[in-house]
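ok so for the tutorial part 2 we go from a plain amino acid sequence to predicted structure tokens. step 1 is just haveing the sequence, like this:
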Amino acid sequence: MSQDSPASPPPAATPLTRAVLEIDEYVGGLGWDQPARLFALVDTGRLQEEEPSLARRLGLDSEQPAGSLTPIEQEEIPAGNPLDEFLATIAWPGSVAGCALTVERLMLPAGAEASVPEGLDEAALNKWVAKHPERQEVRMTVAVLRDGTRESALRLREKDSAVEVLTGAGLVPGLAEALATTFAE
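step 2 — the prediction. this is what the tokens look like for a chain of 185 residues:
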């Protein structure tokens, strides 16, 4: 697909942004209502050098830009396990430059916070949000590198298009922080 195609994501400025948009496009192709997905981010040049057969299977040619990152999907995240507890069990080997996570959630506009009933437990709050007339379904792809660099992509279900994806380092700070702790030593 050429970059001029309306379905292609816009060119990204950094390798991490490109990796986040690549993951968003991949998961977007699977449709909505997907489980959370975890990805290791590895330096493409290092992968080609150390694992040439894997690089070929992944379709990586030798003309990758310097500093490129290749996302490698990990095993499925166990269902029913709280995400923060799952992330606390992860330790990445040194060959992993970063990681990314894609999750779908319901969001409310900022003004809706004032109308949340008091005293709701997590299950009741989730039900309340699911019934709220202004809720929006969003897919979040959040990535961090070992050095602390962060990037995120947000895609609304109602604007499900690669050209409607919002990117930025600080869009989902809590999730980025949780991912960063997987590199804590």
